[in-house]
């Protein structure tokens, strides 16, 4: 494999030759054809003056041409920013602020009026003829390869800086370096269903993994599960917890033939053990639960054989540390610090935040968890997801996990609300398990019996589903109205 990214992608497509690597809108595209498209887009970008260090925003769908545009932008050494659907106008302006070029396809649309140069894929492809010569990779190891933005659930997304050296160090394109869980997943990626945008970090990296595993990328205009799986005979796809819940409910009510399905990769938010067991009952052993961060990439992944609730054995350097920064023994909760081969180098133009999170080569995840005696990882909460009761700090995670163990509860979410007596108090929102109506008194008693009294919710609200951010993560900020008025029970 070529040493510098994206040389490994070019090698992969060259080796694929006449093998189908993409199915899109009735077309089947071979590795050789996709490589030719990469060459044409690369030549087109250079014709327009795009080169090393240039900021390029990608507003793209999931076509073979979109894939080629992502790869070509890296071939010329650009600083790439992916713009995903669903962002607010303010968030999109923030992402586009430092880019000189935008690459778009006709289905993705413009990112707003700008004086910069907007390059349409059709124009790039027609700018020059394909000369059949492998394009020279202009990327330099320490150049910024891409700015990967966080979900933006707390406002404007933060940009994580990933260098070309870090992308080269990633294991995705190197089967010999695949961790055991990824190796098991790769064997199921015969037909990987892609949707949304290939400018997405998650979608593109699973796409590259699929190609490295010898599979085919199959596109869907939108992720209509289970219809898309059945229609395209997909063996694998990415799914959020909310979509997985709906898929399971749909299959219970009106089953479709999902005999092709072998893997669903859940990421973005925790998957409660009860939800996982229900999914396994309905769909079979197909759920892989990944844990990672924008800052680090994948940290760990649970296979269908792992203990429900755990995240498997991390294949990266991981330490659980106490409040003073010292590692703690197995079975002890603490904050997770990790080192991964492809981790980002910091936050774009935010030195203070970089110094807080990137510590002596480690990334401070600000997640709480523990390692058991067999090395399995268990998440227990977020360091910033807290309630301060009578000046004492309590984490929301333990309350949420405890509530979710009750047989009448499918999901639980805890937030802090103002309280005249204690400063803040716990407000719990629960999604009922199918066919159940939770008894609010029972849930309060459960918390009181197992945790400190300050953790007991002063309010409990039944909800049908949790609101989501544009990235598909639970958005707890939207649960409580500004005036904190609810129609639910108190003590």
From TrEMBL:
AMP-binding enzyme C-terminal domain location is 399-473
Taxonomically, which superkingdom?
Bacteria
Family annotation (InterPro entries): AMP-bd_C (IPR025110), AMP-bd_C_sf (IPR045851), AMP-binding_CS (IPR020845), AMP-dep_synth/lig_dom (IPR000873), ANL_N_sf (IPR042099), ATP-dep_AMP-bd_enzyme (IPR050237)
An example of a GO molecular function for this protein is: acid-thiol ligase activity
Annotated spans, Disordered? 469-491
Q: Which residues form the AMP-dependent synthetase/ligase domain?
A: 18-348
Please state what the protein is called: AMP-dependent synthetase
